[in-house]
Amino acid sequence: MKVIITGGFGFLGLHLCKRILAVGELIGADESAHVVRKLVLFDAGSPPKDMPRDSRIEVRVGDITNADEVKSLVDEDGIVIFHLASVMSGQGEKDFDICWRVNVEGTRNLLEPCRGRHGCKFVFASSGACFGERSDGPETDTTKLLPHTSYGMTKACMELVINDFTRRGFVDGRVARLPTVIPRPEPNSGLPAAFSDILRQPLKGEPAVLRLKPDMKHAVCGFRVLVRNLIHLANLPAAAFAESIDRCMNMPSLSVTLQDLAESLLKIVKDPSKLGSITYEPDAELCGKLSTFHKNMDATRARALGLMCDSSAAAIAADFAAEYVDPLLLKPVVEIYEEPRHWLAFSNEHVRVFRVENPPGDTTLMHVHRVDSLYFFFTAAQVQGTKLHEEPKDDILSCGEVRYGDHGNCLLTHKIYNKGPPVMMCLDVELAGFQNTQTDGAAAKRPRTEAANLPTGLRLTKERPGARVHDLDLAAGTSWAGRIPFARALFVVHRGAHVRGELGDRLLKPGDVFFRDGPIDMKLEVLGKRRDVAIWVVELLY
Amino acid sequence: MKVIITGGFGFLGLHLCKRILAVGELIGADESAHVVRKLVLFDAGSPPKDMPRDSRIEVRVGDITNADEVKSLVDEDGIVIFHLASVMSGQGEKDFDICWRVNVEGTRNLLEPCRGRHGCKFVFASSGACFGERSDGPETDTTKLLPHTSYGMTKACMELVINDFTRRGFVDGRVARLPTVIPRPEPNSGLPAAFSDILRQPLKGEPAVLRLKPDMKHAVCGFRVLVRNLIHLANLPAAAFAESIDRCMNMPSLSVTLQDLAESLLKIVKDPSKLGSITYEPDAELCGKLSTFHKNMDATRARALGLMCDSSAAAIAADFAAEYVDPLLLKPVVEIYEEPRHWLAFSNEHVRVFRVENPPGDTTLMHVHRVDSLYFFFTAAQVQGTKLHEEPKDDILSCGEVRYGDHGNCLLTHKIYNKGPPVMMCLDVELAGFQNTQTDGAAAKRPRTEAANLPTGLRLTKERPGARVHDLDLAAGTSWAGRIPFARALFVVHRGAHVRGELGDRLLKPGDVFFRDGPIDMKLEVLGKRRDVAIWVVELLY
């Protein structure tokens, strides 16, 4: 498979490139994985000094407004294109024409040749700037686009064009409406740059002088989660979007103020006195402009499709510090909420579910597990775990494996290195409601609860003080009905398909979770003929 | 002033042309009226045989996709452009490229040269097709645009571009999102053509065979009201749009079914047996497609800006019959609701307010007034009134004149011919709540109600059994406060300005009406230094 990343020399482009190469494969139009044979980085600028060295990379310096040049890139079927190249907001306001040429005509130049090919996927980076100024609530996937910049206008136009190209079958488009991605490792002149400056500068021990007010909300996300989400978006089957003609959606983001980000630094740095100073010198005009930017982007649709969100501003800051500044600045151990590869996927008073994804070659920060957890593994991966003050130990994870961690009695503080493809992917289900009994180690001695009468098909596979795990396997084309007698249950999807019934009319994907109070009269119909469904039904014993 | 109409040889273009030439002037960027010196009809087709003969018309056969050709049209400052030329939905689905070239690049060709000129206004015909298929309620001005056709996509893109051009000061754009304009005098192949066929064919005595179901809702308007609204939109001061960056709005429309239209014919034709037959042969695919079209377009913003709506489907049918078929088919007298120059502007249980606009050279249908009415005149016009079975009589109307019609005791059945510029414009305020007392002619004998203590500034100018009319004149830059002691009052704006207070923070325009239950503690601040405000305060004595 050939992959093209435009704007490939940029911050996001390079991170995306590295991540794709580390994983080594993407899902094609046929819904199966294809090895990435060639990855073209197309950009108008000069290749960066730290360009990754990999024989699969082809560097192409070129002009997106040159139709012939761009056409020559799309020289085979089934290419996956990540179109990130763009004139940004500030330049667009200075020069309308270049904004139109690059963002509209350039995008069209890249879309056009896809019409002559089969099975090309086109992932486009749109922007929250499409929304313009809004006073009323969060920007949702159904909020009217009313941009206040030429940049936002061109992005909104391309959303419309890509929807139409997809509807007509010219290309398989997926559009990610991006919040502000922070922190950029280098200063830039953009208005939302303050949201990067406030993390980068103090972490580098340099002063941050901010021209915005500390209490202005702005939608942001970390670069790691965004790169992960762009790949996830590319990998989704086309059927996942079938509910709507709209292929565009808000990316998950945090709505934060500069103040929030400043405070997040204190949660992760060892010695706050080493941080550079933060000064606010608000400029009325700039504050006025920022108020026209995305403040709070609702990403319900993206979340339902499995796109993730940073768990906290601290996680974004910690991730940046570990990679770009000096890891020794950080506290030696961070909380799970602050570990950038742990994403809070679901939480209520009973459970907190983190989705953990660690790409090949990557290492989590040293983090602490304080609550008894069930771990569900979705990939076969070779990892190296290192507990605090201990030597690394190899571990082999199996797809479908379920483990239990008795952290309520014994904290687990560790980091995980993923030795090679694939991405290590697991769910960490914290049994939050199980905490109360553990102050004196009583959990382990908890009397065994009698197993209730299980309906046919449900098979107990693991039992621990706080929970029992049951398997439910359903073949393609079959349906199942039964009364699940549990007072509280968490359904964790291991293998997914399109289903109809108690869990909705939807495409289940590995890692999807559903919480239900019981007993549950459950019906589940597995649509289609190709895919089986496997679900872990977790009975919560508290 | 120079005016350009693209798509000028089309049905709408020619009607717009005739109406502009009859009125003879448009409001320029300086907010004053300018004589239309030249009107360019630009179109790719052949000039029609019935091209109006007028020395002001310049016919230009040309190609909107030829940038140089289009640029040569925009050769002076202060041009008012009505851009109607477009590839329509059906052709756009067959050929994406021509749809993009004409609708996007062609529009850009016309917008570009405006950047180099001063004070050009750009009125663009967008379409309800921008909305695509929606199941949830009416399409409003804040509904997300999610077109299901390439045609709709290109229109939605141009809305974004025109907003941005306007924001940047490149042009003064105003975008009318059109419903389906009916009835077209000639059959066409478009899907919503059925909504024209069902009126035209029976009125011509020919069969209508409809491929759609009779109960499918669709948003329509008559061509006369649309032409009027496009001119009104062009004439509005830029300040009227200041509340939002969005220059695009739904045009007022009726949400009707084919059945509704068929029934409307029975209200206006003399002898239903002369109508051609109507047969429904619904085609599932076509019905499916129509369900993706605009069903019910909410035009709250346009209405607040003074844009009007046909009072009924019958009015649309009657208008068409009078102009295109055989006026003798019609009943000799129609109700006000069915008279196409009377538009219902406001109604409640107490009053029904019709806005009457009759352009120069135009004659209303013979219609009947059954309810006592106050008439407020907004233009100095020379007209000829013809009562049923009587000879025509000349009449001179003054701007600011108020008349009373005692129709409750004595029906008025008449038609009005406007002898020359300007447009005859008046409000017909039916005193609906005054009806009850009139069966025995008691209205005229109604005992005189004592006038309440009037606050300073309010001056009684007319008294009739059902109502008293008071003047309230406020100079620019002043403010006024007082207690208006009436139990029910209708405020009719004679001369407008931007005001703040009881009537909102808004630009008042001649003919705006506001109903209030009293007593009313009223404050009104007239903003700006140029414009005075004059309001008729109508006390309803029932």
Automatic annotation (TrEMBL), chains A, B:
Record keywords, A-Z: Carbohydrate metabolism, NADP
Source superkingdom: Eukaryota
InterPro entries, per the entry: Epimerase_deHydtase (IPR001509), NAD(P)-bd_dom_sf (IPR036291), RmlC-like_jellyroll (IPR014710)
TM stretches of this protein: none
Domain NAD-dependent epimerase/dehydratase: start-end pairs: 3-201
Presence of the UniProt keyword Nucleotidyltransferase in the record: no
Record has Metal-binding as a keyword: no
Protein name as annotated: DenD protein
Gene, per the UniProt record: denD
